[in-house]
Amino acid sequence: MIDQEAQDDFDRQYAESMKDPLFALDIDSVKSEYGDRFMELRTIINQHDPISLLDIGAPEDEYESEVKTIIVQLKDDMTQQQVHDLIYQEFLRWFDDESTAGPKESYKKLAIDIHKWMKK
């Protein structure tokens, strides 16, 4: 059984995170708005598996929260570096720090692939 203090702490953190408009976006609404593009981006991120979660058995939808917050911020005129910066910032947002997200350099190939995908 979870202790009440831990539950209260979780509830506070969750409530605080929902003040962030990107966290608070409804994933089903974003999927509906972006359609196939959402799933295409998820596929690219899954192929790179930047946190290696799929390698250890996480479900295929593991990175959908990151896809949600990335796809709504992508702009057609972004440079590859801007895409790289955005992706890394979002993984830091979702995974708290570099010790979990890994170094920024490890996202470079993912950023290249996303930038190419954006130009299609």
Number of strands: 0
- Strand portion: under 5%
Taking pLDDT < 50 over at least 5 consecutive residues as the criterion, the unreliable ranges are none
Radius of gyration, taken over Cα atoms and rounded to an integer in Å: 15 Å
Order of helices and strands: HHHHHHHH
Major beta sheet summary = none
Structural class category = mainly alpha
Distance between the termini: 50 Å
Oligomer: single chain
Helix amount: 55-70%
Work out the count of structural domains. 1
Mean pLDDT across the residues is 90
Number of helices: 8
Which descriptor suits the 3D outline? globular
Task: Summarize this structure briefly.
The chain is mostly helical and 120 residues long.
Structure description:
The chain has 120 residues and is mostly helical. The chain has one domain. 65% of the residues lie in helices and 0% in strands. The chain contains 8 helices and no strands. The protein has helices spanning 4-17, 21-24, 27-34, 36-48, 64-71, 80-95, 98-101, 108-118. Helix 4 runs antiparallel to helix 8 and helix 6 packs across helix 8 (108-118). The chain is globular, with a radius of gyration of 15 Å. The mean pLDDT is 90.
